[in-house]
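[job 4417] fold queue: 2 targets
>>> target A
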Amino acid sequence: MPQPFRFGLQTHGPIEGMSWTDTAKFAEQQGYSSLLVPDHFHGQYGPMTALAAAAAVTTELKVGALVFGNDYRHPIMLAKEMATLDHIAEGRVEFGIGAGWMRTDYDQTGMTYDRPGLRIERMVESLQIIKRCWQEGSFDFAGEHYQIDGYDGLPLPYTPGGPPVIIGGGGPRMLGVAAEHADIVAITANLRAGEVGADAISDSMPEAYDAKLARVGEVLGDRLDDTEINSLAMNTTITDDRDGALEFFAGMFGAPKEHVAQTPALIVGSVDEIVETLQERRDRWGFNYVVVQQNGGQGLERFNEVISTLAGS
């Protein structure tokens, strides 16, 4: 039985012509389940302050980052910030965490861009520490990358045990980690190159997603039906000329139009066509939690029509 549809809006800052707090209120009014920000070092609002402000002016909207880069903060500090945000939001936080992937974040700040496996190992240790911070009592932790000595993680989150965890992945190892540790598994292209380039585009085709979901299902096993599966659309274009738009994207992706039409990285068509497409993708891959980007595409002001048709169904 598939999970019911819900939708998130990811944005780097305010919608043009709006303040940040008005953007959060607008997202809630439009029916989005969540307002999410990325976590990079350029061209966006700082996530902690932005999410706290968004939570303070809404009542139902979930807030979070898609996703926090593990290497950018010590896990104890991140656990404390998320517990505090969870109190401000009164339990409306989704905690997204990843191993860090964007090479420019590392290069421009002088951080070492370690091999993917090492970054993943650090993230797994970090998540263990964060989850332990969200439990009562002091604890020790002796890992390869972090050492904790007698720390008592306060405040405890508003949500007992902590907010639901989102982990995204594109390669087999990270997908396995996400399936093992996350409440919400976010499926992406493999970003091992450190940028959204030709490698990521080629890994966004439908057959690649078949393999990704097979890997997730292998690890989840009987838990698959209870796990939300998330997709992030890099471009959402609401148009009555679907064929014309797909021709454009086929040229950009260097792939046949029929393949481009199916990639979860794109949402293209009229409202009715998009509704049908998202239903097909949930049937094929399980994508029930669909996130669109505010700064990607055109016609997004009509996406509330998609939400009103599908949300909760």
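>>> target B
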Amino acid sequence: MIASMTGFGSSKLTQKDTEIYCDIKTVNHRFLDVSIKPNDVGNELDVFIREDVSKKIKRGSVDIRFKLKFPASNTYTINKSSVKNLIDSLHATKLIDVSSIKLSDIKDIPGIIKSEQKALINQNLLKKTYRLALNKLLENRGIEGQKIKKTFFSKIVKIQKNSRKLSESNIKLSRLRASALNKKITMLTSNLDHERLEQEVAILVLKHDVAEEIERIDFHTDSLKKELSINSCSGKKIDFILQELFRETSTLSVKLDRPSYKQIALDMKLLVEEMREQAQNIE
């Protein structure tokens, strides 16, 4: 199934005093690039998320953000060496009765008491929140991908319709071109080798024949429709097919010399260019 590289998914889970929010946003990128914030969610979770994302997303810039509200436990440590140094200094001054000093008197002095806050993060809850957000993201990318697919098929139908018009008129145009060249040259010259003249005319007509380009355009549009319809649709392959299709429509617009038919070729070229822009968003 075709998937867009642009998408968004979010989730929130609550368990007792813990609240976890997860937002995942993806945008276009040539390769798969995963960013997880905050950076201190833990190595185990970081590795788990990166491996999981690589299994479900082929390419794109993936921005995963967690917002955590959780209980924490505090630990306190008294620096005995600092306390001893402080007491020794006070003894030396003989200005304060050291025996009357209380903990409340020295607790705010830097280096005396060290406190650490340890987060109690539920890893399973984090993973569950991430999975919910990722599923919503994948669903969103799929919906956007179907919109792109619908647009592509609409443009392909227009290209194929124009291609049939040109194919049906190609033989007629070749005959008219040959006849016009013959008349023009006959008017300008006399005593010519008519067999040689017809050969030259045939060569000139062949230069403007577009049967080969139309055949290739039909092949590429059929290939594009086939690729868009398979489950393992590849944005890189679609981009390659569109490059070939753009080349053929460009040649077509150069070869056709009648304004009405040249305009048809230019319209086809424009449709291909529009698809090439949209293809940049296909995974």
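[job 4417] complete. Note on B: The chain has three domains: 7-71+123-140, 73-119, 145-279.
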